[in-house]
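User: My instructor asked us to take a sequence, write out its structure as tokens, and then describe one feature of it. I'm not sure where to start. Here is the sequence I was given:
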Amino acid sequence: MDCESVRRTLGAWLDGEVSEKESREIRAHVEACPSCRAERSRLERLQFVLRAALEEGASKVTFESFWHGIERRISQGRVRHREFWDWLRPVILPRRLAWAIPVTVVCVLAVLFAEQFFFGLGWGPRSNVAAVESIDGHGFNLALLRESETKTTVIWLFEDEDEEEDEPAPEAASTDASL
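Assistant: Let's start with the prediction itself. The structure tokens for your sequence are:
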């Protein structure tokens, strides 16, 4: 290893954050290189000074009253209605309501149209779907009835009664022409 790579990883090595193989390589380089050994000594002194300052500052802070308050709250327990309210509050908050409304609509529609998806659920008489199509042309009409349940198709061919009344009968037209 060269000095530059050792200096980049020296702090991690002192904290024990490198692999064992890398640790052996760094240790061998630090023992052989006086400038890296001096850098190691400087970092160790810095760690010692920082740790001492933190321990001194932390010893001045008393956590007794804080811990007593936590223990008291734990021993008190929670009131039942408050637990229910804490559970209910996130559900009825406006930002939660944004997804609750579409979910409710989907659930209601699913219940209303469940019969369409699951044919075994019969809440009433099943409706038979039938389609009627008709075509008009040259005085004749054609009607088709398709029923879905029995898969039946009925075809009607019939004359248009209105057109018969408008056109004179062929016999009447020939008698009028002979006069």
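For the description part of your assignment, you could build on this observation: Residues 34-60 form the longest helix (27 residues). Try explaining in your own words what that tells you about the chain.
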